Amino acid sequence: MSKFTRRHALALMASATGAACTSAGGPAVQLGTGSEPLKDLAAAKGIRFGTAMDVREVSDPAYLDIVLRDCAVIVAENEHKMYTIQPTPDAMNWTPGDTLVAFAKANNLGMRGHTLLWQHPQWLPDWINDSDFANASEAEAVLGGYITAVASRDADFIYSWDVVNETIDPETGDIRETSFTRVMGPDVLEFAFRTARAAAPDATLAYNDYMSWEPSHEKHRTGVLRMLERLKRNGAPIDALGIQSHSNDAPPSAFTPTQQKVWRDFVEEAIGMGLDIYLTEFDVNDSMMAPGIVQRDQEIAAFTRDYLDMMFSYRETKDLLMWGLADNHSWLQGFKPREDGIEKRPTLYDSSYRPKLMRDAVAAALKAAPTRA
Fold first, then answer.
1. Is 354 in contact with 22 (CB distance < 8 Å)?
2. I want to staple 369 with a disulfide (CB 3.0 to 4.6 A). Which of 203, 229, 312, 340 is the partner?
3. β-pairing, 110-118 with 204-209?
4. Residue 9: closest CA among 368, 298, 290, 297
């Protein structure tokens, strides 16, 4: 992995057909080429390419054009989460998730499931947080019934599930406490994986989290590895580690050779446990970057190429899913907003659905990736 420079971005600029231009009343930008469908470039290397989708996006024809051109798979952004499906104990809200499943089937897209257990009290329904389970059996009945219902619903279609999401507290490296862990302890994790396997026997099962290469994530990385070792030691049916691949706590310039080595060590430990790697929620937060659009786009593209070159060098990396394809569809517009208030540019297409240098960087990394089975 090369030291972080603008080398890749400059190469992309030299090859881009879109010259620097000025949108109506806006600053100059350097457009990407946006030519070859990313799903085709990925498939040629044995990789699945896709994006997260919100159910409302099914009604946005312009956005769907780029989804259907570039993507082979989708994942629900929020529609398969417990707070959507079962916000109260007495009813199941299947409509949002079913709508996205139907969209995927109608358009010959594959689909990942996200997530069966978001093991974090902030994202569990109030009725779960307020539950005072008498014992482990009572908690297992509630959680097991939910996982079985959700994972079995489209078991013939959803090819992979994030079974547990974000259970490691980044401040301590320990498993977060929830109403489930208070009576089940850490066994809740193995229970979730075994229940998911029984309900969806053909799906690959993943643990998903946002630990990253960033310097402040040391405890998070250590805690995730310790938890994965426990799952493997206890025979949990886990197939993959989902690496969200957000970069919210450091700018791209912090992806130095030192941090690249730290990150390789982490990834290789996970792979050494027999796990595949899914890049599940990729985007690049530019909150800490200078405001100029051209400079931001160049730096984001350079980081994207360097990061994906590293991750694709491992043949165990099987999926790349973006967490939104266009800037105006990105959750990052509201998360850690820029102090200057300007629009972020964290995705492959700008808010006018024009391809950016970041898209060219993804295409170049896919072309350079080694082929996997």
1. no
2. 312
3. unpaired
4. 298
